[in-house]
Design goal:
The protein is α+β, with helices and mostly antiparallel strands. It is built from nine helices and 13 strands. The longest helix is centred in the middle third of the chain and has 16 residues.
Length: 245
């Protein structure tokens, strides 16, 4: 079994809309904005603390009484992660992998095992059920936020109309007027045409941040893409690049 040191800290995700890196430990969630030098610590009891870096670097006594010391130490290490990444930039390897004629740009830190993957944008026009068969990773995008939003949109639209989804043939051109759908991580364009039972979904280019030591647990979406081939290719490339450094 691969283990990391007690002080090893790395983000599991990045939210582009708020410029926040997400760190997890036990039942604690830490959201860090390195540009604003602020963080939000979400407790297991759903209480959240929004403070600046100075607060956690020299926490007041009342905070130390409320929070276990190892969580404070973890948060302190997390806000230093960006500086550590800069100092360790010489360990960063940039490469590209291709799976099913789609190119993914990969950035890997051979010292920390941090991994960043650029997933190219795409536009999908599909029947709702086919979306899940053709793109099994879809239900895990943005930690399930996207599928929740779109399912609600389809449900409410179907409830508001007397039409039933049609399975008849449809003929091009079909005109779409998608609206913006926003999760905590990304912005999408979406439309559901009930009369044709068709989904239009425009997915932007996205960045996924994870760690090779926890990739299957923290990045379920990656494990589902291309029937698992993408994550296998990434493993092979990372292994080869690590040996050559």
């Amino acid at each position: 079994m691969i283990t990391t040191s007690h002080s090893a800290v790395a983000p599991i995700d990045y939210i582009s809309t708020s410029n926040e890196f997400i760190f997890l430990k036990d039942d604690y969630i830490l959201r860090v904005n390195f540009e604003a030098k602020t963080f939000q610590l979400n407790m297991p009891d759903r209480i959240a603390y929004d403070e600046n870096f100075e607060f956690i670097q020299s926490p007041p006594a009342w905070f130390e009484d409320k929070i276990d010391y190892y969580i404070i130490e973890w948060a302190q290490n997390a806000i230093k992660w960006n500086d550590q990444t800069i100092r360790n930039s010489r360990h960063i390897v940039k490469t590209s992998v291709e799976v099913d004629e789609i190119v993914y740009h990969v950035e890997f830190n051979t010292k920390t095992n941090d991994l960043s993957i650029e997933i190219p944008g795409k536009t999908i026009i599909s029947h709702p059920n086919s979306l899940f068969y053709d793109f099994p990773e879809f239900q895990f995008m943005d930690n399930g936020e996207l599928i929740t939003l779109l399912t609600a949109e389809i449900y409410y639209q179907a409830q508001g109309l007397d039409l039933k989804p049609s399975r008849r043939k449809f003929y091009a051109p079909i005109s779409f007027q998608p609206k913006k759908i926003t999760t905590s991580r990304n912005k999408y364009k979406f439309e559901y045409k009930l009369e044709n039972d068709l989904i239009f979904l425009e997915i932007p280019t996205r960045q996924l941040h994870t760690n090779m030591l926890t990739i299957e647990l923290s990045s379920t979406e990656l494990t589902k893409m291309h029937d698992g081939k993408l994550i296998d290719v990434i493993r092979n490339v990372v292994h080869e690049q690590s040996l050559s450094v």
